[in-house]
Specification:
Distance between the termini: 89 Å
Helix content: 40-55%
Radius of gyration: 32 Å
Strand content: 5-15%
Number of strands: 17
CATH class of one domain: Alpha Beta
Amino acid sequence: NFIWEFFVLQNLPKDIQPMVPGLLVVFVLGIVLSTFEFMFAFMHKAKDPSIRCGDVCCSSAVRSDKHDSQLAVMAGWFQVFKVDSFVFFGTANTLYQQLKAHLAKQKVTLPKAERTKYLIFDLSEVTGIDSSARDVFYKVHRLLKSEGINLVWAITNPKVGEAFEDQGLYVGAIHFDSLDLALRHVEDELLRKAHHLSEKWLVNQTVRDIFQRQVLVNVFNISVRAEEKSFASSRLRPWSKIITLSSGEELCGGDDDNLYLLYSGEVQVQERDGSHFDCFTGSFFNLDHVLVSVGALAGLPATIGAVATKDSTVLVVSRKNFLLMQKQDSALGQKLLLTLLAQKEANRPGRTRTRVPYRDSSDGSDEPVPIHGVARRLLAGDDYKISLTDAQVERFSDVFDLIVAPGETEIPMDDFSSFVSMEARLLGSALSHEEFMELIDKSGIDEDGDGSLSKEEFLTFLRGLFLADIPSKEVESLRQAYDEAVAVDPDALMDEVRVEALFKELGFDMKSSNIGDIIGAIDADNDGDVDYDEFLTGIGMMKKQTILSKQLDTAFSNYMNQSKAAKRELKRRSTVESDSQTVPNRRSLLTLNKKAFHSMGKPRNIMEQANLEDEEGVELTASDLMAFLNIKRDEAEEMVFLADQDEVEVDRIDAVLELTGTNLNCHRSIDRVEFQQLLRTWS
């Protein structure tokens, strides 16, 4: 009463006094509501952050099989930190400490080339962030910057996004409105990085030529074996038509049961549940309509429409042609159906990428296998012409007929180059159209130089691309070897297992050759039985691969020799430099060592490079690549990591750990088999 009478009745104007009770009620109510809001937020505060690796965090984007395989190799290069609900200072601090522990653990368990390159902070389920917690996110920002890790924010709540932008947390980082968009961005960046690193191998002209040849082999691959993950889309061209879409143009709505294959551009697909995903070059869409219509998938089709988000080129296979294909070309139809089912499974929510298993080297798979016997004698001559099989000629002629304009008998070279570049990009190649024009021109396919391509020139080019001729004196021994192999079990098919055994008996190196691709190509009629003519064509393909393998072995040896020469020169120059320098005392030497260890990954000077260990083995290491490519250690180690198929032990170096606590020694290297596999899979 005293407070009311003294402070209210005596000191406040009479016209305000009647309002005081209401104001007090509002004030108290505000305190109560704020208290309840705080209690609610506290009870629903964020759980401890979870860390997921890239192999279990995939965007919804549908990519080519090649790119998906590459992303599986690079899965360890990005992680997702998930935070949800309301973030208080304590939760944010826990997040920061967990992040520090995660990065510290990587330093003592993984070499730098295999550590995190991108870190996505998934804040898509965060409802709010306490103002005191924002300072912790500044520390996160600074920590990742100091470690050279790219920071990506995934923030759905507009208020949280505005707060981050106002506080400057977007500066030096990338942000997206959803986790899916953030994942897609990181995947795109990693694929660009992979292309950049793979190009560094092409300093040797022989390697570059073989690399580019492999691109052409992929384009004109006519095999449709069921176990293969992909096949050249040129096989679909006779059953389809090509349309162009402008950005914003819609298609496949309503009862549209056509099958679409994206040649170039980008298409966003809308689904019945309101979700959407992006299709990239080399992927099918509207496939669920086709699968449901043929009884391969139960329920209603998920796709309700699609829109081109960029100017795009699309191949369209109608349902009628799809069913006709199953009857008239059953091998292709079966392969396409399996491919659609595989893509449907790969695009399911929550999918994961299977990491590439390490190679088992216990059987000596990394040791060179010298060719011998008949295979060795085949290298001695080429006066007997090996021909394409009848089935191959038929398949390749179909490809020619679909490229040539109606009523014409020849293809302008510009049109042919455009076809090759489009097909190659569909398979994941990153070569530009200009590079393909140069590649086609260098191939000599236009024999008469008239600027156009006849069917005879086309088939001659493909014969040279896939086959090598053999000495005529060995034809009789090959016939005898084939007949003897058939006679072992004359009633059984001469299938892949028996043909592979015969090739091995003839002395071919089966570890360097991809026997599956060869059988799939020579058995183009897909009857599972390799007759003598197909076997002889296979011999021509095996010889071609043997020649290319020997050329790559020579290039591999040249890389080794260049590395040794570069190291010797660096040592010579370092000796000259050291003679002109004062010998440091023990304390200054320790300081120099600390600086050297802390600068791991930065460009090395002459003294540092000269002190690299001088490996005299038969495998390429990061120091070899640094020496003859003149690149940074980080890039060299990443190139070796992407190519190395062996599981290796990571050893701590006690002396290094005493100085820095961070560095590891990882004995990764690339042998000849891995080098050749690299060019086949990353071309």
